[in-house]
Amino acid sequence: MKNICVVIGMDARFHYLKQALSSEWDVKMFSSTVWDEKLKNKINHLQPKVIFLPIQALAVETLFELPKSCEVLFIGKNNDAIEQEIKKMDIHTFYYLEDEQWIWDNANLTAEGLINYFYTHEKQAIYNKKFIITGYGRVGKRLAYALHHLGASVIIAVRSEHQLYEAKSYGFQIEALENLLTNQKDNSAYLINTIPFKWLPKSGALNFNKVYDLASDPGCLLESDEQIPTNYAHALSLPGMYFPRDAGYLIAQAVQTFLTKVEGE
Predict the structure, then answer these.
(1) Candidates 3.30.420.40, 3.30.70.80, 3.40.250.10, 3.40.50.720; correct CATH number of 4-99+244-264?
(2) Concatenated DSSP letters for 64-105?
(3) Which of 29, 167, 220, 231 is in Cβ range 3.0-4.6 Å of 156 for a Cys bridge?
(4) Which domain of life is it from (predicted)?
(5) Reported confidence tier of residue 185, pLDDT bands at 50, 70, 90
């Protein structure tokens, strides 16, 4: 008899996560991102050995309390309620969004997803277009590489001097982030933000043809939702949007690697 693994979430990737895990686990899916009394009771009834939480932070409406059967908890975005429960229980925890191999593999899918998003919404070629990428982490690097090889002109804008000159060493144009809005006023350029904090004023967004914000909520805009520029697109979860099968299997790979490690201890 297989041990039970509970997967909570509504992301399209989780269907393929279930497929990948089902050969070894009895996987039960709950399409929810809210921890309420009803969900809590259902999970307690199942007594799962493994619980997999949503990618986005779980909304907690009742006491977050795991069943005593739970030995392994997979966490996407954390919150105080989850953290407090972890401290009370002697369980293995794995923050799957922080797994280094997953981060790099997912960055590849995000870059390819942005390209697909651009083709779908702009209905133009990338060749000979100008893209300014703010941030030069994993996603920024994979995007710069992909866009460059499709014939785009790529500028990297960051605060870190180390990252600026790293980008320059790979042949990209560079711009200090603090000078970007002053020096780059080419309304034909597309801005792609990967920096996970608010830094871009509404007036600055209007300097560009389009702003594609890939950073998690709340994105890079300084103003409130009522003041979102018409040329701004908050393009989240691109791997799940365009490649749910590939993205789901990537998560499953990280999960299976961790479970194998736990079993070997």
Answers:
(1) 3.40.50.720
(2) ----TT--EEEESS--HHHHHHHHHS--EEEEGGG-HHHHHH
(3) 167
(4) Bacteria
(5) confident
